[in-house]
Amino acid sequence: MTTACFREPTNADRRAGILALVMYLAAVVLASATIFLLEWPLGMVLWLGLVLAATVLLARWNAAHSGYRCAHCGHQFEISTLTELVSPHGTGSGGWKYLRCPRCDRLSRAKALVRNSCDGGRATDKGAS
Ligand SMILES: [Zn+2]
Q1: Integer Cα distance of 78 and 60 in angstroms
Q2: How far is the CA of 74 from the centre of ligand 1 (A)?
Q3: Distance between CA 89 and CA 33 in Å, rounded?
Q4: Distance of CA 92 from the midpoint of ligand 1 (Å)
């Protein structure tokens, strides 16, 4: 497993998250037309498949772009798409997810972070010459 670096979310990160959620909801609503346009039960089955695929894609996007900080020991870690899908979460205090820390093995409302390049985006371009 590769190590990842994380930072506190900014307003731009929150906007990107809201945009992803709005796009997800719009896709679910638009795809619901298949229920009425196709014969029963094909339309319903197709819609459920599309909703499932969109949900997995949203969770995968979130897992790839986020990390979490343990409320007990401060350890920062990433989670799998499956954990992203099934773990309880909320928006209070900038976002949290109820997770077990891989370092101290305790459950907590882990604070949501944003995945970042490990040089912090401050890599110098003068080093080579
Ligand atoms: Zn911990």
Answers
A1: 12
A2: 6
A3: 30
A4: 20
